[in-house]
Design a protein that fits this description.
- The protein is of the alpha+beta class.
- It has a single domain, classed as Irregular (Factor Xa Inhibitor), CATH 4.10.410.60.
- Helices cover about 35% and strands about 15% of the residues.
- The chain has a 3-stranded antiparallel beta sheet with strand order 1-2-3.
- A hairpin with a 5-residue loop joins β1 (about 15) and β2 (about 20-25).
- The longest helix is centred in the C-terminal third of the chain and has 11 residues, at about 50-60.
- The radius of gyration is 15 Å and the shape is elongated.
- The relative contact order is 0.25.
């Protein structure tokens, strides 16, 4: 039986923590930044957890499940 392929786009966008949780980046931080407040741009930085309802789908794309 052939091996399952990892989704190349997903492996660039998601990161697995040591405890097995999935991290992602927030959206809307790429362009049109001049109209966004400094506070909002600061909140868009960093990594955040993937919502529990989406975890199964992301894990399947990453070949974890």
């Amino acid at each position: 039986m052939p091996k399952q392929k990892t989704n190349s786009g997903a492996k660039k966008r998601f990161q697995v923590t040591g405890s097995g949780k999935l991290m992602r980046k927030k959206s809307t931080a790429r362009h049109l930044l001049s109209s966004k407040s400094n506070r909002r741009k600061r909140d868009l930085g960093g990594k955040h957890l993937v919502h529990p309802s989406d975890e199964g789908h992301v894990k399947k794309m990453l070949g974890l499940k």
